[in-house]
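User: Structure please.
Assistant: Input sequence and predicted structure:
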Amino acid sequence: MTIEEIFLLQDALKKNKRQILKFILIGLTLVLIAAYVPQFFLKRRYSEEEIDATMFSYRNTWFWVWLLSFVLVLVFALIKVTDVRYFTIKKDLTLLQKGQIKVPLEHVYQGNNDMQTSFIVKQEGVRKRKRLFYWMRGRLDDFKSGQEVEIIYGRYSRIILNISKA
Protein backbone atom coordinates (compact mmCIF):
# COMPACT_ATOMS: atom_id res chain seq x y z
CA MET A 1 0.00 0.00 0.00
CA THR A 2 1.13 3.50 -0.72
CA ILE A 3 1.34 6.26 1.88
CA GLU A 4 -1.69 7.98 0.32
CA GLU A 5 -3.78 4.79 0.60
CA ILE A 6 -2.78 4.41 4.24
CA PHE A 7 -3.84 8.00 4.92
CA LEU A 8 -7.18 7.35 3.20
CA LEU A 9 -7.79 4.35 5.45
CA GLN A 10 -6.78 6.35 8.54
CA ASP A 11 -9.23 9.08 7.56
CA ALA A 12 -11.99 6.48 7.13
CA LEU A 13 -11.06 5.06 10.55
CA LYS A 14 -11.44 8.50 12.16
CA LYS A 15 -14.87 8.96 10.57
CA ASN A 16 -15.96 5.55 11.79
CA LYS A 17 -14.67 6.25 15.30
CA ARG A 18 -16.66 9.51 15.39
CA GLN A 19 -19.76 7.64 14.27
CA ILE A 20 -19.34 5.01 17.01
CA LEU A 21 -18.82 7.68 19.66
CA LYS A 22 -21.94 9.48 18.46
CA PHE A 23 -23.96 6.27 18.82
CA ILE A 24 -22.58 5.66 22.32
CA LEU A 25 -23.57 9.20 23.33
CA ILE A 26 -27.06 8.60 21.93
CA GLY A 27 -27.25 5.41 24.00
CA LEU A 28 -26.11 7.13 27.18
CA THR A 29 -28.61 9.93 26.62
CA LEU A 30 -31.37 7.35 26.23
CA VAL A 31 -30.28 5.69 29.49
CA LEU A 32 -30.49 8.99 31.34
CA ILE A 33 -33.88 9.83 29.86
CA ALA A 34 -35.30 6.36 30.51
CA ALA A 35 -33.96 6.35 34.06
CA TYR A 36 -35.16 9.79 35.14
CA VAL A 37 -38.38 10.51 33.24
CA PRO A 38 -40.41 7.65 34.82
CA GLN A 39 -39.16 8.69 38.28
CA PHE A 40 -40.29 12.24 37.68
CA PHE A 41 -43.85 11.16 36.84
CA LEU A 42 -44.01 8.52 39.57
CA LYS A 43 -42.96 10.99 42.28
CA ARG A 44 -45.97 13.16 41.45
CA ARG A 45 -48.47 10.39 42.21
CA TYR A 46 -46.93 7.81 44.53
CA SER A 47 -44.99 7.63 47.80
CA GLU A 48 -41.36 6.50 47.94
CA GLU A 49 -42.35 3.00 49.11
CA GLU A 50 -44.80 2.56 46.23
CA ILE A 51 -42.21 3.80 43.72
CA ASP A 52 -39.63 1.31 45.04
CA ALA A 53 -42.12 -1.50 44.42
CA THR A 54 -42.66 -0.59 40.75
CA MET A 55 -40.72 -1.93 37.79
CA PHE A 56 -39.39 1.57 37.06
CA SER A 57 -37.54 1.86 40.35
CA TYR A 58 -33.80 2.45 40.49
CA ARG A 59 -33.60 -0.32 43.04
CA ASN A 60 -35.15 -2.88 40.71
CA THR A 61 -32.39 -4.95 39.11
CA TRP A 62 -34.58 -5.97 36.17
CA PHE A 63 -35.11 -2.34 35.27
CA TRP A 64 -31.37 -1.84 34.81
CA VAL A 65 -30.92 -5.16 32.99
CA TRP A 66 -33.73 -4.27 30.57
CA LEU A 67 -32.57 -0.70 30.08
CA LEU A 68 -28.89 -1.49 29.48
CA SER A 69 -29.75 -4.41 27.18
CA PHE A 70 -32.03 -2.17 25.14
CA VAL A 71 -29.38 0.53 24.78
CA LEU A 72 -26.64 -1.97 23.92
CA VAL A 73 -28.79 -3.53 21.20
CA LEU A 74 -29.73 -0.06 19.92
CA VAL A 75 -26.09 1.02 19.64
CA PHE A 76 -25.12 -2.15 17.77
CA ALA A 77 -28.15 -1.83 15.49
CA LEU A 78 -27.17 1.76 14.64
CA ILE A 79 -23.63 0.61 13.90
CA LYS A 80 -24.89 -2.19 11.63
CA VAL A 81 -27.42 -0.02 9.80
CA THR A 82 -24.90 2.72 9.01
CA ASP A 83 -22.15 0.37 7.81
CA VAL A 84 -19.52 1.30 10.37
CA ARG A 85 -16.41 -0.70 9.47
CA TYR A 86 -14.07 0.27 12.31
CA PHE A 87 -12.51 -3.14 13.08
CA THR A 88 -12.05 -4.17 9.45
CA ILE A 89 -10.36 -0.84 8.67
CA LYS A 90 -8.00 -1.41 11.61
CA LYS A 91 -7.23 -4.87 10.20
CA ASP A 92 -6.48 -3.34 6.78
CA LEU A 93 -4.12 -0.83 8.41
CA THR A 94 -2.37 -3.60 10.33
CA LEU A 95 -1.97 -6.10 7.48
CA LEU A 96 -1.63 -3.53 4.65
CA GLN A 97 -3.37 -5.74 2.11
CA LYS A 98 -5.44 -4.48 -0.77
CA GLY A 99 -7.47 -6.04 -3.53
CA GLN A 100 -8.27 -5.12 -7.09
CA ILE A 101 -11.28 -6.08 -9.21
CA LYS A 102 -12.70 -5.11 -12.58
CA VAL A 103 -16.50 -5.44 -12.54
CA PRO A 104 -19.68 -3.74 -13.72
CA LEU A 105 -21.53 -1.60 -11.16
CA GLU A 106 -24.94 -2.89 -10.22
CA HIS A 107 -26.08 -0.06 -7.92
CA VAL A 108 -24.66 3.27 -6.78
CA TYR A 109 -26.11 5.16 -3.84
CA GLN A 110 -25.22 8.00 -1.48
CA GLY A 111 -25.19 7.54 2.28
CA ASN A 112 -24.37 9.26 5.56
CA ASN A 113 -25.68 12.66 4.45
CA ASP A 114 -23.82 12.46 1.14
CA MET A 115 -20.52 11.91 2.96
CA GLN A 116 -20.12 8.40 1.51
CA THR A 117 -20.89 6.70 -1.79
CA SER A 118 -21.57 2.97 -1.81
CA PHE A 119 -21.23 0.69 -4.82
CA ILE A 120 -22.79 -2.75 -5.18
CA VAL A 121 -21.07 -5.00 -7.70
CA LYS A 122 -21.85 -8.51 -8.81
CA GLN A 123 -18.73 -10.64 -8.99
CA GLU A 124 -18.63 -13.41 -11.54
CA GLY A 125 -16.93 -16.67 -10.83
CA VAL A 126 -17.63 -19.82 -8.88
CA ARG A 127 -20.01 -18.05 -6.52
CA LYS A 128 -21.90 -15.21 -8.15
CA ARG A 129 -22.32 -12.84 -5.25
CA LYS A 130 -22.97 -9.20 -4.68
CA ARG A 131 -20.44 -7.17 -2.72
CA LEU A 132 -20.68 -3.71 -1.24
CA PHE A 133 -17.78 -1.26 -1.54
CA TYR A 134 -17.49 2.12 0.19
CA TRP A 135 -16.09 5.43 -1.06
CA MET A 136 -15.56 7.40 2.16
CA ARG A 137 -14.52 10.75 0.65
CA GLY A 138 -17.86 12.26 -0.25
CA ARG A 139 -20.25 12.05 -3.13
CA LEU A 140 -19.25 10.52 -6.47
CA ASP A 141 -21.62 11.41 -9.30
CA ASP A 142 -19.43 10.24 -12.21
CA PHE A 143 -20.39 6.57 -11.89
CA LYS A 144 -23.69 5.01 -12.96
CA SER A 145 -25.15 1.52 -12.78
CA GLY A 146 -23.95 -0.76 -15.57
CA GLN A 147 -20.56 0.93 -16.05
CA GLU A 148 -17.47 -1.26 -15.99
CA VAL A 149 -15.05 -0.03 -13.29
CA GLU A 150 -11.74 -0.99 -11.80
CA ILE A 151 -11.72 -0.80 -8.00
CA ILE A 152 -8.69 -0.90 -5.72
CA TYR A 153 -9.85 -1.45 -2.15
CA GLY A 154 -8.79 -2.39 1.36
CA ARG A 155 -9.04 -6.16 1.41
CA TYR A 156 -11.04 -6.59 4.61
CA SER A 157 -12.97 -3.33 4.93
CA ARG A 158 -13.82 -2.92 1.22
CA ILE A 159 -13.05 0.80 1.54
CA ILE A 160 -12.30 2.04 -1.98
CA LEU A 161 -8.80 3.46 -2.31
CA ASN A 162 -9.09 4.18 -6.04
CA ILE A 163 -11.86 3.75 -8.57
CA SER A 164 -11.69 4.35 -12.29
CA LYS A 165 -13.77 3.59 -15.36
CA ALA A 166 -12.45 0.60 -17.25
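The CA atoms of residues 91 and 156 lie 7 Å apart.
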